[in-house]
Here is the input.
Amino acid sequence: MNRPTGKIGVGIVDAIVIGAGHSGLAMSHCLTELGIEHVVLERGAVANSWRNERWDSLRLLTPNWQTRLPGLAYDGPNPDGYMTMPELIDFLDRYAGQTVAPVRTDTQVKAVWPEAGGYRVETDRGDWWGRAVVIATGANNRQSIPASASAIPSSVTQLTSHGYRNPAQLPDGGVLVVGASASGLQLAEEIHRSGRPVTLAVGEHVRLPRRYRGRDIQWWMDAVGVLDERYDQVDDLGRARRVPSPQLIGTPEQRSLDLNALSAQGVRLVGRLAGVRDGRAQFSGSLRHVCDLADLKMNRLLDRVDEWIESGGRGCAAEPPERFEITRTPARSCLGVDLANGEIRSVVWATGMRPDYGWLKVPVFDRKGMLRHDGGVVDAPGLYVLGLPFLRRRKSSFIHGAEADARDLSQHLYTYLGTVATRFRPVRMAS
Amino acid sequence: MEQQAITVNNGVNIEALLGAREALTAAPEAAQFKWRASSEWVNGTHSRSTIQKFFGLGEEQSHRNPFVYDTDHPEIFASEDHGATPVEMVLVGLSGCLGAGIATVAQNRGIQLRSVKTTLEAGMDLAGILGIDGDVRNGFDGIRVSFEIDADASEDDIRAVVAQSQKRSAVFDIITNPTDVWVEVKKSA
Here is the structure.
């Protein structure tokens, strides 16, 4: 049988999972069920990103009843609540303990490259070799910051949603929050409430009410089948994968957070940040357009929910349909602000995150640096990825989306290992 | 749906466009286009622009015929009014672009259009271009585009077609976002 030729410091296994977040742990659970010998390598502690790379007030966007992984579901007293980060970390710690996942913590992967029909995984604690590798490092490793950031005057403090913890990190005075996904809206509200007047730059976004017809919107999306839509069934997968996270917030009072709510609190809405020139931030004149798009899309989803209920869907009782006020935009759009006159003292980038695969030395990237993969089956034998937006289903990036994907991919991996074993059997017999 | 797809005809060749999208995804360099105009001052505020050649799909291309446009200013500007003002040409570009998008998106969504009427209005304070007030910009202070559309679809579906057309409109993007402009000058020999 093929064996790596170089020195292996730590171990040889069938599969190596990189990352012990919810995806990596779910994968480990499924691999254990299939009897596949594996290890989970984690740069820090279990749930490291949730521990160290999220802001203080963040709660999950999905309700507790939906927080489930293969072999563990939320069983606490508040199924309709939304977990704080410490609660989620406890949940994942419990999961890691319960599944006896073979997790090697404080083990930073430095490089992965193909070797001897498998992969060598170099870490700061020695090298591993596995016939298959599962990348479960998540989609949120690096902030995507537009090039215009470099043109912002040095008198203005810059912070990313990745590095943001609370408003006290920011200087007093005005704040430009760039981005109108869940992160951008939550940060805009929290920062504005701290007494720092916020200008929010709004590009294309997804508007959703927190609750509709008496239930969490996530319940409806699950019920009508939106969350289960598969990657091989959508018209434009590239676009579906780039959709920003919906404007939602998890709060005990289960309230909606949309642009109207922010306007009412005094947040100034401007168009997408189009550029920075001569110390001036320029905003696109497309604010009305992106708000129209989001309102239309939200109503299409609500129409779909209404139709599902009317067609007798699960016979469930529901409150009467409603439509929400269209997004109000200023009568005159602000098309630019001077960043040098002291009105804006800091810029917070909530412009989305990208995965970071700098350590992956396998030629599996497209021209934009993203992995070439078919529903998580990466374009190199025995290499898999989990936990990316719309990887296999619309719910793939949610915690509850990990189970179905991990089951599919672990099955694929199991079959792959069988094929490899068969292929190498003659060699083995000859030796 | 099947039947609809056969009967809807907005005069747009969707198959060709989808084919082009696929081909240009595979060959991104072929998607690099250069649009060109050449222009000559005639007299006073009157200029004449000609459109014919452009570059795309990796080679020089040409319209079937040259298109010639006169721009001038109306008589209240003490001009001779040989053509639309240049700012009105911008509105021509915007309505042309959105109209093309609407027909295409509607075709792709199986929506038969019967009529699409557009009026555009752009405000401008001449205090800008005349240098009366330095706080007033030269260009439009806003553009209002009004569509009246007759089509086999609900009002929301029609709105969605217009919104999608804006989303994919080059001229909408050019107008709503900054564009870098180089101006080079040389003296004729």
In short: The first helix of chain A runs from residue 22 to 33.
